[in-house]
Amino acid sequence: MGEITLVTGGARSGKSAFAESLLDTKVNVNYIATNCIAQDEEMRIRILHHKKRRSKNWSTSETYLNVADVIEEKTVSAHLLDCATMLTTNFFFHLMKEQFDEDYEVIDKEIARLSEKEKEDIEAKLLIQWEKILVAAKHSSSHLIVVTNEVGLGIVPENSFSRWFRDVLGHVNQILGKEADKAYLVIAGIPMKIK
């Protein structure tokens, strides 16, 4: 049965570096990079920074789709999923593109019009993806480390959609926290074991 470790913290708290430090650089690790879409130059630089920091001994799966399959199919000592927030966000936009094509102007307009029922349906689809990932992790012999953003410590978003999506991310984090065998909160580069 696979072990699950959750590492949470705010933006630039040092959570990714800490999660990486939990793994020996020589073990067989698969890094599941969920922020694999550089939509601008700043994001491209962030992605490159993360890639440079990773051990050369690790393999990388750049995906936010079918992550449960990656966990089931790759025989490794550990998977490091970085991060849950980007996986959920990218999967949300994947669902929107399936429904409204690739036009982000149309998607933005449709998002603003989502009913409460539609939001509930979307959240259910997002949570099903996480359930699949957690089931795969538990049935795996690999250790799964999941990095996530602690979304409730910042400012309250100014619009209703952003508040709803922040809540969805919070629900994902609660599920991950409940299912994790160990959990750490990283603040200002200082990790604290909370479970």
TrEMBL record:
Pathway: Cofactor biosynthesis; adenosylcobalamin biosynthesis; adenosylcobalamin from cob(II)yrinate a,c-diamide: step 5/7; Cofactor biosynthesis; adenosylcobalamin biosynthesis; adenosylcobalamin from cob(II)yrinate a,c-diamide: step 6/7. Its EC number is 2.7.1.156, 2.7.7.62. The keyword rRNA processing does not apply. One of its GO terms (biological process) is cobalamin biosynthetic process. It is an enzyme of class 2 (transferase). InterPro entries: CobU/CobP, P-loop_NTPase. It catalyses: adenosylcob(III)inamide phosphate + GTP + H(+) = adenosylcob(III)inamide-GDP + diphosphate; adenosylcob(III)inamide + ATP = adenosylcob(III)inamide phosphate + ADP + H(+); adenosylcob(III)inamide + GTP = adenosylcob(III)inamide phosphate + GDP + H(+). Keywords: ATP-binding, Cobalamin biosynthesis, GTP-binding, Kinase, Nucleotide-binding, Nucleotidyltransferase, Transferase. It holds the Pfam family CobU. GO terms for molecular function: adenosylcobinamide kinase activity; ATP binding; cobinamide phosphate guanylyltransferase activity; GTP binding. The active site is at 50 (gmp-histidine intermediate). It comes from the Bacteria. GTP binds at residues 9-16, 51-54, 62, 82. The keyword DNA-binding does not apply. Belongs to the CobU/CobP family. PANTHER family: BIFUNCTIONAL ADENOSYLCOBALAMIN BIOSYNTHESIS PROTEIN COBU, PTHR34848. Catalyzes ATP-dependent phosphorylation of adenosylcobinamide and addition of GMP to adenosylcobinamide phosphate. NCBIfam families: PRK05800.1. This is Adenosylcobinamide kinase. It comes from Enterococcus raffinosus.
